[in-house]
Amino acid sequence: MNAHLTTALNLAARGVPVLPLRAGKVPFGNCPTCRDNACGGRPNMKTPGPCECPRPCHAWAAATTDPATLTGPGWAPAWQRAAAVAYHPGGVGLTVVDLDDADAIAWARTALPATRTVSTTRGEHWIYQGAMPSANGVRSGVDIKSTMSYARWLGPGTGTMAALPDTVRALVIPKPSPVRPVTVFVPAGGGECRHRTPVFLERGIAMAEQRITQAADGVHATVYRTFLAVLSKHGRCGCLTDAHTARLFIAAQAKGESARHCADAWSNALTALGM
């Protein structure tokens, strides 16, 4: 069996979503329709395009733990030409801080807590426990690879994996725009932010659950739009709790969404809202 496929199957058996990479760290399409980027993904197929396949078939979205998919006709030819194995860090609850050069490594050693480290061609991957939005060029020589991204598998690395620190999360938070003064209406006798009213929030979560449950088709899009609406309405004043989020995820998973796709949709909605 091909060495890269063997590595991929071993990782998949441990719950790590994987995919093959060709030369240049570029994913293969794993269906005939989407080979050679025919479905309209971005250059080098690093972002899924608007394909009509039964499931996303390339880039980070194609990473899977299913051995039948990995060895099936879609990817079998790819493994014979694969230059490396990639994995979806966010899909297994990890974040990779990709340090491209000596200066970036020197910065990490002074700014970040020690964690599991993997040597790369030009630098190092620092791997933390915890997922977050991905971003490239967060500072010179530093990329973040977690949700909606992939990283090369270069071995298990050395050191004890640490929890994802706030220092890393802060790297992808956009700088706030200047805020213009606004006039705020306050009801006579004072009043409480309606977002913190339990009845208002409960009604909003219940309506969101119903919207997902009643989706007849386009479940992926419905889940994302619902998450976006909930976060837009309730996400900025601290009223949402993990229990509320769990209710939405449960509703989505009851419609066939995976936990990984729920997490990706939630993260994507947060990013879209600049949260």
Describe what this molecule looks like in 3D:
The chain has helices spanning 3-13, 67-71, 76-81, 102-111, 166-169, 198-213, 219-234, 242-254, 259-272, and strands at 18-22, 26-27, 84-87, 94-99, 116-119, 124-129, 135-139, 142-145, 151-152, 162-163. With 275 residues, the protein is α+β, with helices and mostly antiparallel strands. The radius of gyration is 21 Å and the shape is globular.
What is the element layout, followed by pairings?
Elements: H1 3-13, E1 18-22, E2 26-27, H2 67-71, H3 76-81, E3 84-87, E4 94-99, H4 102-111, E5 116-119, E6 124-129, E7 135-139, E8 142-145, E9 151-152, E10 162-163, H5 166-169, H6 198-213, H7 219-234, H8 242-254, H9 259-272
Parallel strand pairs: 6-10
Antiparallel strand pairs: 1-2, 1-3, 3-9, 4-6, 4-8, 5-6, 7-8
Helix content: 25-40%
- N→C terminal distance: 45 Å
Q: How does the major sheet shape up?
A: 6 strands, mixed
Radius of gyration, in Å, reads 21 Å
Structural class: alpha+beta
How many helix segments? 9
How large is the share of residues in beta strands?
5-15%
DSSP strand count: 10
SSE sequence, one letter per element: HEEHHEEHEEEEEEHHHHH
Shape: globular
* Spans where pLDDT lies below 50 across 5 or more residues: 41-49, 176-191
Average of per-residue pLDDT values: 80
